[in-house]
């Protein structure tokens, strides 16, 4: 007989994992609200024994047994399924923590069985929580991006300082340019000194003439 094959021709799937948590935490994390979504789909309303509700994926649910924190048994029905399926969660005491045991009956074929087993093993081992970690990484990236933007503000301040420094340099250059005419003024004064020097030369030329006069 094939693994998981029942007498009525349907298949059953199961998976279990022991975790170091209390029975109450295990129940809350796997049987209530979004916890049920870890291995099936989250219910739109709380599961109450004997009452019906709907999962977020459209599956209709009848809560057959709701005995926290040990047993949850529900009947699942969909229009595209040939027959209803029964899902069950048990929280069993272990040497350390508790064992979460998942089970489903009424699967149509071995492929469906293998798919559920793979999905549950990943969920129980924590692999299904990877997307949540990615979301956390994006948030961290945003914070890091914000932190990276902070130096930009500093660089902006540096840019302002640079502009001020440039403005000061330009002011100094302009001041230097204004002082240049003063140097030109001193250059213009130079001819006056030259004339004075010429006058002195002229005077010195007359003295020899006088001495010659005396000699005559």
What are the salient characteristics of this protein?
single chain, 216 residues, alpha+beta, six-stranded antiparallel β-sheet, 51% helix, globular
Fold topology:
Layout: E1 11-19, H1 23-30, E2 52-54, E3 60-67, E4 71-77, E5 85-93, E6 98-107, H2 110-125, H3 130-215
Antiparallel strand pairs: 1-6, 2-3, 3-4, 4-5, 5-6
Structure description:
By secondary structure, this protein is an alpha+beta fold. 51% of the residues lie in helices and 21% in strands. It has 3 helices and 6 strands, in the order βαβββββαα. The protein has helices at residues 23-30, 110-125, 130-215; strands spanning 11-19, 52-54, 60-67, 71-77, 85-93, 98-107. The chain has a 6-stranded antiparallel sheet with strand order 1-6-5-4-3-2, with helices on one face. A hairpin with a 4-residue loop joins strand 5 and strand 6. The protein is globular, with a radius of gyration of 48 Å.
